[in-house]
Amino acid sequence: MEMAEAKAEEAATWVCWDIENCPIPNGCKAEEISQKISLALSKLNYLGPISISAYGNMNHIPPSVKKALSSTGVVLNHVHVNSRSSSSRIFRGLLDWAYNSDTSNLIFISRDDSFCSYLSKWQRDRNKNVLLAHPPNASDSFVSSAKTTWLWNSLCTSLI
Predict the structure, then answer these.
(1) Which residue stretches of 44-115 are H helix?
(2) Top-level CATH class of 6-157?
(3) Which stretch is the leader sequence (predicted)?
């Protein structure tokens, strides 16, 4: 893990969470997700504000879990069952971040390696700072597309 560069330390961080492909890990409470992400960032000296957007079919998530996530500021973006539409919706969110946002830091939580070339390009060409949380079976190219990486399960189950 790399510590934040000076320009990234105080910058805002947007978390784009593919909740369908990286659900809340066993042993982690929904109401702790936001706090765990904040803690992981602060350990690397990222101290700016954080916003979290979750994308996926919210019909599969119990109402109590959705309520717990929402209560901590996680924005839930329902995407219909078609996995292609889910990737499309996530991609639109990522494009908006890369080209229209003043937020320079991104944590992408996913296992979808179809985004790795974009993540690398935005980091290299748009001066964006990409961090990644992924499951253990993520491809090497996906993991190498980010400056800093975490295993999603370990990030969520670390002690607060």
Answers:
(1) 63-71, 83-100
(2) alpha beta
(3) none
Q: Tell me 61's DSSP state.
A: S
- Return all residues near 142 (Cβ < 8 A) that are at least 6 apart: 111, 112, 113, 115, 116, 132, 134
Domain segments of the chain: what residues? 6-157
CA distance 39 to 36: 5
Q: Give the tens place of pLDDT for each residue, 21-62.
A: 899 998 889 999 999 999 999 999 999 999 999 999 899 899
pLDDT digits (tens, 9 = 90+) for 59-107: 989 999 999 999 999 999 998 766 566 788 888 888 888 888 777 899 9
**Distance between start and end Cα atoms, the chain:** 18
Structure tokens at 150: 């975490």
Sheet holding 13-18, edge to edge: 75-78, 50-56, 13-18, 105-109, 129-134, 148-151
Q: What is the pLDDT of residue 158?
A: 66
Contact by Cβ (8 Å): 51, 12: yes
